Amino acid sequence: VPGRAEVEAASARLGELVVRTPVIDCPAFDARAGASLLLKCENLQRGGAFKARGAQHAVGRLVPGVRARGIVTYSSGNHAQAVALAARRFGCRADVFMPVDAPAIKREAVERLGARVELVGTTSTERRAAACAFAARTGAAIIEPFDDPDIIAGQGTATLELLEQAGPLDALLVPVGGGGLVAGACLACEGTSTAVYTVEPAGCDAMARSLAAGRRVVVDPGPTLADGLKPSQVGERNFEIARARVAGSFTVTDDELAGAMLALLLDAKLLVEPSGAAALAVALRGELPGSPQRVGVILSGGNVAPERVGGVLAAAHRA
Amino acid sequence: VPGRAEVEAASARLGELVVRTPVIDCPAFDARAGASLLLKCENLQRGGAFKARGAQHAVGRLVPGVRARGIVTYSSGNHAQAVALAARRFGCRADVFMPVDAPAIKREAVERLGARVELVGTTSTERRAAACAFAARTGAAIIEPFDDPDIIAGQGTATLELLEQAGPLDALLVPVGGGGLVAGACLACEGTSTAVYTVEPAGCDAMARSLAAGRRVVVDPGPTLADGLKPSQVGERNFEIARARVAGSFTVTDDELAGAMLALLLDAKLLVEPSGAAALAVALRGELPGSPQRVGVILSGGNVAPERVGGVLAAAHRA
Question: Of the residues B11, B75, B210, B300, which is catalytic?
Fold first, then answer.
């Protein structure tokens, strides 16, 4: 059974390959939340998202002879960019299967890093099948986006650092797509009294429904601003780890995501993508069970197209 | 003669009153600059700008009986907000004279903090006269925006921290309005081999012209995006300190300011106001004398109206 030790080992292996991102606070947020919010700025991570942690860790753990045959992955965006970065770092070829509706800014960033991008369907099931077929044909190693021990341990380093930087937390809010970040958070929080909560877009709450059902549920993800948080199913390992540790689950609306994004920009001076603002959106409600005083909030990424930022600002200006 | 010891003393006095802001780097910037840029994020400071350092320090240094008669200041924006914050912290009344063309976002922030705002003219000379008359009438203590030893020592703590966080720097780029930040930087760099450079908007280069003339020159500041960097004259103490230490001066155009702001937003995920992006605009040219390898860049503030951000984004979208 993996635990905090795996996250600590990942942190030691990663060393300078990832950024020890800052933790900031913002008095305007604390006033709204009725708590001290400690914001872990993974939007300031290499590649603009926490995904660099898992990808650098997993690619670094491959045997060099295996890595030389190339790596392949599938992703809606940020994991793709992180794998492309890791491939460049370790000097191997990378092929990436992305959905046809991936934001152009994320696709272009992957190509700029030297990876080959192929667009396939709109669901994680479709792009995973394409990546597996490619791996079978070429011998490339698959770098899973979330359901993998090395990925989970790597993503857990974000929470490990947060606990080191901020001290003990009563609660921690984590955005959930496939569940890599939250599974890592659960491992990192082992032995602490931190209550870990999941946050998903309304209509894309595969983790919340799975936790409620006691087994992994397949959902048909509805439309959401949070393009990074809409897999049809969470990972198996991710679910098992979350089931043993998660204290509760929340969903957020597009209006709340846009509001949190805008507050981050104007009050905290940080550009955060909609998926990355999900945890703050819940914190700002000020309704966490038991009124925790010190609340960790993971800002998971900052890769957002300029026109979307403009749209959010324009909406604020009209309001 | 003030020196590094005054800045160290200010840092010890300030303690938790200001944020030890993070220093970040950004590979995309380093590639353009041909150097390692270390970005000191004063946009993440309390009140959204480095001005909190000097204001908290100067207000804290007042004798309590003096402070009880109230404080008064004059400013185009960020110093006003910082003084309002300090007044709230120390429980005294604050009156602030701002120009009629101050951005609404800055004026409203001052009022939200509980200070009284009065709009006077468009030049620092006009608002200074109004503040002095008010002080004479009421007995309030004037908190100077830049030409004051306690303000200079306070602003110097930004550079002191940067040197502690980033290690030795070959060069440091500092935006200059009245000269508080750069004078503090000069003091903090005492005893190091860091070359300190000033950055001003084209047409608002009171410091560069004064350094060239060997005496303080009055300018008629032209229009600029950088509303925080347009006093008609730098401070006397600021000039004397800069004259003894500054290695060179640069000016930047509005196009460069907008470009640097946009790069900070999209590549570094940071919202920085035009004045705050001035030093980066120079760094990105990659033309510093002697090709320094480790270059400090002070991002001095992040208080910018949503509609201006929208304008910069829209321009980028058209480009």
Answer: B300
